[in-house]
Design brief:
The complex is a heterodimer of chains A (388) and B (160).
Chain A: H1 2-5, H2 8-12, H3 18-27, E1 32-33, H4 45-56, H5 69-83, E2 93-96, H6 98-110, E3 116-121, H7 127-133, E4 137-142, H8 153-159, E5 164-169, H9 182-192, E6 198-202, H10 221-224, E7 227-232, E8 245-248, H11 251-264, H12 270-282, H13 284-308, E9 320-321, H14 332-343, E10 345-346, E11 348-349, E12 361-364, H15 369-386
Parallel strand pairs in A: 1-10, 3-4, 3-5, 5-6, 6-7
Antiparallel strand pairs in A: 2-8, 7-8, 9-12, 11-12
Helix pairs in contact in A: 4-12, 5-12, 6-11, 13-15
Chain B: H1 2-11, H2 17-24, H3 28-40, E1 61-69, H4 78-85, E2 90-95, E3 102-108, H5 111-122, E4 128-135, E5 141-142, E6 145-146
Antiparallel strand pairs in B: 1-3, 1-4, 2-3, 5-6
The complex binds pyridoxal-5'-phosphate (PLP).
Chain lengths: 388, 160
């Protein structure tokens, strides 16, 4: 009965086949999982302490729909200091329930049935479903190991049609760890500035880059007015459970996003907003320490996989490595299945992030060095067995 | 580079030279040479494990003793500090600013052991003016490590 009531678009989004694999993982014992996309660090104590203090003070009511002005101001300072981005805290920033909500709002605010959204792949899994729910059509742009999974201007240009309305720019990238440097972005900018297309730049991993500083596409004047920057507290400040993110961009777009947010969400959790203010004011040193630790783990893993004889390009961002397992003659899912049963290590098949992720697996290094070393040992033995 | 190596092994002295080399992006031989150099010049003074003795059957007590002393002409506090730190039951000796001069940390099997050490040895030293002994009742955190602080990984096994 109820089934007949369900919206067709929602129905059309099939739970991925990989779900079954995940269910098995969560039921098995003694498995080392390298499958998680969130920091292993707890939120730094000074942030938790501030949240407790604010609770004691009785901060238990709604805030304004856009979020605390004080927080929006801190965010504007931060974006300016880190990435040279100028936004007005009054009407160009919206506090959202994680970057997740900001992605959904941006797509809902713009997409009409039949509109196309360009999504580089492999990439994070939420863009496509959000597009489909809004009635739009996701258009995948393949990225490959040859270009270190960077997006090229030619590939973007080729995919643009009169129906293209949004380009998602997911860098630093989950699952590949790829980044876009200034020159890479410049090429994209030169294409995009000729089109009436919104760039939705998901910069949730912007703090987690190694050896080079993140550049935001919004720092290019030519496309500043057609770019929405999305960021948040989950990854950089190890605050996934607080559910706090934000969008910054053109006033008119923020206004309509705020309209949807106002009716669907009201406002983000008040306590989380106070915690975020503390994180921005006094948390940058902690961020630096976490980045240093991630970097060491990253090097250990890249070294480890190359030593096993697997191709592993050097990821310069986020906290994932994305080695190729093609030389073993197994598909991504076969590899992950066998690795789980035979070596008791859980990793994520690359095709979970789009077809062109096939032949790769995503390995997270949001784990302690001891855990990573133990896992590397098990994976090493496994790879030896299958190597031809 | 030496400091980078030290920061790593201060937190985990069991890292292998290969691991350290990879994490810092330098050669393994360089790591070995630097460590050897720092062991020789005693920058690296030793290696230890951090043990929560509460978890074992072994009985131990730890006390922190505030010691006031008369510094000696020409020698300052060094001579008296040396006379104190030579005792094997003394685990640490620090020269302090503030209300007293030397902070002495002593370990013994029983409170009586420690009390005897203070009354029979420490208090009798020539330059010692006074002592105040504080027994440690419980160790929550030692050398940056929280005892029983490792919580289970509560994250889901797979999360995209
Ligand atoms: C690329 C990317 N964007 C957005 C998110 C969602 O982040 P938030 O916790 O801020 O909603 C994730 C989380 O894994 C992600 O990997």
């Amino acid at each position: 009965m109820i089934d007949t009531l369900i919206n067709q678009r929602v129905k059309s989004i099939q739970p991925s086949g990989i779900r079954k694999f995940f269910d098995i993982v969560s039921q098995m014992k003694d498995v080392i999982s390298l499958g998680v996309g969130e920091p292993d660090f707890l939120t730094p104590w000074h942030v938790r302490d501030e949240a407790i203090y604010q609770l004691e003070k009785g901060r238990t009511t709604y805030t304004s729909n856009s979020g605390l002005l004080e927080l929006r101001q801190e965010i504007c300072h931060y974006l300016y200091n880190q990435y040279e981005l100028k936004y007005n805290p009054n009407d160009e920033v919206l506090i959202t329930v994680g970057a997740s909500e900001a992605i959904d709002l941006a797509i809902r605010a713009v997409i009409e049935p039949g509109d196309e959204v360009l999504i580089p792949e492999p990439s994070y899994v939420s863009y496509s479903p959000c597009v489909i729910l809004a009635g739009g059509t996701p258009v995948a742009i393949r990225t490959t190991e040859e270009t270190e999974f960077r997006l090229t201007a030619e590939d973007v240009e080729e995919c643009i049609t009169p129906r293209s309305k949004i380009l998602i720019l997911p860098y630093p990238n989950n699952p590949t760890g790829a980044i876009m440097e200034k020159d890479d972005l410049k090429a994209i900018v030169d294409v995009l500035k000729k089109h009436n297309i919104l760039i939705v730049s998901d910069e949730i991993y912007s703090e987690l880059t190694y050896g080079t500083k993140h550049v935001s596409i919004a720092s290019f004047e030519e496309v500043y007015d057609q770019t929405l920057v999305i960021n948040g507290f989950s990854k950089a400040f190890a605050m996934t459970g607080w559910r706090l993110g934000y969008a910054a961009g053109p006033k008119s777009l923020i206004a309509v996003m705020t309209k949807i947010h106002q009716y669907a969400i009201m406002c983000t959790p008040t306590i989380s907003q106070y915690a975020a203010i503390e994180a921005l004011r006094n948390g940058m040193e902690n961020v630096r320490c976490m980045v240093e630790e991630y970097d060491r783990r990253r090097k250990l893993l890249v070294h480890g996989f190359r030593k096993m004889g697997l191709d592993c390009f050097e990821p310069k961002g986020a906290f994932y490595v994305f080695p190729s397992i093609k030389s073993l003659g197994l598909s991504s899912e076969e590899f992950c299945d066998k690795l789980l049963y035979e070596a008791k290590v859980a990793v994520v098949p690359g095709n979970a992030f789009g077809k062109c992720g096939e032949g790769h697996v995503r390995i997270s290094y949001a784990y302690s060095v001891e855990t990573l070393e133990k896992a590397l040992e098990r994976i090493g033995e496994f790879v030896q067995k299958y190597k031809k | 580079m030496q400091e980078k190596i030290l920061e790593l092994i201060e937190n985990n002295s069991r890292l292998t030279p290969e691991q350290i080399a990879v994490m810092l992006g330098i050669k393994e031989e360089e790591v070995c040479a630097e460590i050897k150099k720092m062991e020789e010049n005693q920058t690296i003074a030793g290696y230890m494990a951090i043990i929560d003795w509460e978890k074992t059957k072994k009985e131990t007590v730890t006390a922190l003793i505030e010691v006031k002393v008369t510094p000696q002409r020409g020698l300052g506090f060094d001579k008296i500090a040396e006379r104190i730190y030579q005792y094997p039951e003394v685990k640490s000796v620090y020269l302090m600013s503030g209300g007293y001069d030397l902070c002495v940390i002593v370990e013994g099997k029983t409170m009586k052991d420690v009390a005897l050490f203070v009354s029979q040895r420490l208090a009798l030293l020539d330059s010692v003016i006074s002592t105040a002994t504080h027994f440690v009742l419980k160790k929550y955190k030692d050398h940056g490590i929280i005892f029983n602080g490792k919580s289970k990984d509560e994250r889901a096994a797979i999360w995209l």
